[in-house]
Amino acid sequence: METLLVNNILQMKEINKNWKKSDTIVGLVPTMGALHNGHASLIKKAKEMCNKVVVSIFVNPIQFGPNEDYDKYPRSIEKDKILCNELGVDVIFSPTPIEMYGENVILSNNELSFVCPPYSIVDCMCGKSRPGHFDGVATVVTKLFNIVKPDYAFFGQKDAQQLFIIKKFVKDLNMDVKIIPCPIIRDVDGLALSSRNTYLSENERKIALTIPKSLKEIKNLYLSGIIDTGILFDTAISILDKNIELDYLEFRDFNTFKKVDKVKENTLVAIAAKVGKTRLIDNEIL
Amino acid sequence: METLLVNNILQMKEINKNWKKSDTIVGLVPTMGALHNGHASLIKKAKEMCNKVVVSIFVNPIQFGPNEDYDKYPRSIEKDKILCNELGVDVIFSPTPIEMYGENVILSNNELSFVCPPYSIVDCMCGKSRPGHFDGVATVVTKLFNIVKPDYAFFGQKDAQQLFIIKKFVKDLNMDVKIIPCPIIRDVDGLALSSRNTYLSENERKIALTIPKSLKEIKNLYLSGIIDTGILFDTAISILDKNIELDYLEFRDFNTFKKVDKVKENTLVAIAAKVGKTRLIDNEIL
Q1: What is the pLDDT of residues B9-68, one digit of tens each?
Q2: Contact flag B174-A146 (C-beta cutoff 8 Å)
Q3: Among A132, A149, A182, residue at a domain's last position
Q4: Domain span including residue A132
Q5: B5 strand-pairing partners
Q6: Residue B187 within any structural domain of the chain
Q7: Which ipTM value was assigned to this complex?
Q8: Are the beta carbons of B119 and A110 separated by less than 8 Å?
Q9: Distance from CA of A78 to the nearest CA of B (A)
């Protein structure tokens, strides 16, 4: 069966209602489109675990800051449809911003309701550089969950902070959906797949490669017994290309999201950095 | 069948899952207990419209300010059970704060996820005097909706701002529940029923009665053709007892919640005032 393209919220709800008449397990892969192999791995996992798979494609305006790349964020719905079709996706849910947020609405806390995850996990790392970003993510994900009503939702571990935050508000607000984290997928050269990689020039890509290289070195040092974050941090810095503008390199317990001084199993090593105008993130869970 | 008392979230979810196997229409009446005839009217309406009725009884700590009456808020679970039984309520859902928010959690935006309705309808009227109140209400109501998964939820029109806010975030976040507003129920002397009325001394109650009296006079003047809010405001003030500490008396369009200069059909006239230490609210929709 060909993938069905749905733009309308009520239609999506109706489809779910029909599925639910027969105990169907529904999976949702929320995306902003410009699908790559990272997304494909999420979709494949969803196909394994669910009877019906919905891929949402929505470049969500409320998670972009005023000086960020909302307008130029890559959009490739025709290519995305082909990939979804190949992978056996049942429905692409791709609403317009007006369908999601209404007409003539200023997309701010003044006119719209938001889901706000706890400050302690929002006001740090990516949230520090991108104020309001995770409120926007939490809000759109909540909306998608209420529209698609998935049993499982699939998120990439590349967005480690996002993943932690989503698990947290799902628990806090007693939502029924189970969050399935999926491993980072890398290109052959080691760069973590991201729709934003298309922004990189050839030279910038070379520079960007020192990000996964520094993470790999941290992992190697950890495996050889070095657990002091000071030493690990300095090593990573020495590997990162001088033209990289580091935003953060942090060591956090992936169960609690608290900073750690000594790394151990399940420590998240997360990095965000700008290469030229492109902001990239990557991480390793030790 | 006797009303079942459920304290546990998972048990409540299981009960709903069983109901939903057979297309049951579920109604929720969210309350803070200390049930009175106002609540009874909501329950009766729910019984009319639904196959199964859940009354939640939960004095929600996160909607009380630090200097408010959380600790002394009236609690009467035994009496409440008898009333629910008489009215044919299927389930009382009455979790503890720990069951709802977890153990050793500081109940603040720093550690918990909140649902935050738009500032424009939160930072005024009751929300102005009670910062954080409506975020707390929106959050607990969202949790209750996710736990009980009602088709209909019943709210009293006495809390007009709350009602408007709940409708707004339900729409904004694409929740499926339908919000059913129910009219204010008054005592024989005209005072709007409220669990907080038990705080009033005999003399305070006399003073409080000038609140509904002033609203009634506004309605009479409106029906006689006076639509200028300045005149209506002054008349109301002249009727209110001098010992009443007025918080606000506002005229708003009940469809948009915008202030109006000239009243018309569907104008909300809302009042909040302190009588002694007791904060009371009341309103009329013209």
Answers
A1: 999 999 999 999 888 999 999 999 999 999 999 999 999 999 999 999 999 999 999 989
A2: yes
A3: A182
A4: 4-182
A5: B92
A6: no
A7: 0.95
A8: yes
A9: 27
